[in-house]
Amino acid sequence: MADNIKSLLKLWKLYARMDLHWLLQDKATVLLVVITETLTNLSGMAGVLLLAVRFGGVGGLSADEILFMLGFFELADGLSWMLFGNYNVIHISRRIGRGQVDHMLIQPRPLWMQLLTEGFMPFSGCHGLIIGIALTALGISRLDLSLSPTWFLLLLYYLVIHTVLRLSQSFLYGSAAFYKPVACEEISSMILDMNSQLGRFPLFGLPTWLGTILHTVLPIGLLAYFPALALLRDLGKPTELAFPFLVAMVFLTAALICFKKGLTHYAKYSCNRYKEMGHRC
Amino acid sequence: MRQPFRAGLATAKLCLKEQSYFGFANLLAQYLLQAGALAALLMIWRSLFLQGVDLEGMHLEQFYTYTVLSTMLAPLLNVHTPASGWLHDGTMLGLYQRPASIFAQLAAHTVGGWGMRFLCLSLPVFVISLLCGLDMHPVSLWFFPSLLLSVLQGFAVDFLFACLLIRIQNLEWTVHCLREALTALFTGSLIPFAVLPWGIGDFLQLSPFGTLAGAPLSIYTGLSEPGILIITQLIWNLILWPLAIYCFRASGERMVSYGG
Questions:
Q1: How many domains does chain A have?
Q2: Cβ contacts of residue B232 below 8 Å, gap of 6+?
Q3: Where are chain B's structural domains?
Q4: Which range marks the domain in which residue A220 is found?
């Protein structure tokens, strides 16, 4: 156990250093990455925010509440991106579909340890997190929220739920790439794109059936809308705490089962997409 | 004249077929994602109207039509040629070995790629919208020239992004993200300029990104007058096309690809 923790810390340090070196390769790269990452995060939430400003709120939330909700989304999304964004760990179907799991299986580290550490990019991938912290803090100050240690624990709880849901969905659907590497290479990206695009919308006013789907089967509502409501209005009812945990655990379990099953298939058939000259087809 | 046209058509047909190479799962996931996003945005407009906000004379149906049309015509309103990807993987070099202009080949590939989407997403969305009672008639027929100008301008913008990629060499993903970030908000494809606060929309709709999607969609739904928008589109085409051709030629010897 202690050895594992030591190895994890060592690997995180190593990947952080590699990320810094990549970012600092030249001035143009630094400038372009910083501008692009900042613009990407801002433009993603600007649409909903501008609508909320224009109409004094949207989807049952005031403009400031929308600001808080979007801040939470950026914070949680930025956190999961910073922890798992590099080397396509979060877009796992690309690694699988491109036959790159082979590279991982020959490393002298367990697969779980590689998946937990390889994606770490604290320098080139921290912009979403920083913007998220700034927006959430701005939202809190404008709403005059009373903060307590319980509130911060709850914030942390929903951040973990968000990360688990995104990763689980990516691994769950991405496992299809073990069987159909070409067709499903981009399936994780598509699921994550949908999460990012729809997760920023407040889901008020939807028909009950659609609302239920978007909080369970396709848990977009649990990424920002539900946590924002819980953090803003009604703290800590046992059912409200248990519900997202339950959904996240179902997705996590399903992802683990499917990934393991897919890996067994991969060990037998591998991924035969490369020509002799090295090009992928 | 007929020979290049037939060659272009054949390339477009090949490209249409190519769309199905990745299988049904890939196609379905893409289109379900876009249909889901469309449904969510329609719900947002609905919830706005349920709140009873003052939309200054604009109607819910205009917003519905704007959003539906934006999804249906997405590839025309924000043209993506395969240039950036092909520069990275080396396919671009093969185009120079063929007896046709690079622009024409890229255009044929792009147009061919639109077919599958029209069949699997645009057509069903259009039919469902009509069945739901949405009025899909254009308010002004100036929409058609505006759409044509928008597509032409889209090609020029895409070639300019390809030139940027050539210039900075190995940052394809970063340039892709930069472009997506700029077009997400500034083209008006997601949210009509007419509903943006502080008059931002008035400025954006005349910008080179704003005229891409915002102009034809606003003309179609009657959210803006066609005159000034079409003149602006003409001006941007006159500026951006010579610039794109010059930059592309100047970038020719800088092309570096990785292959594979």
A1: 1
A2: B206, B211, B215
A3: 2-254
A4: 2-269
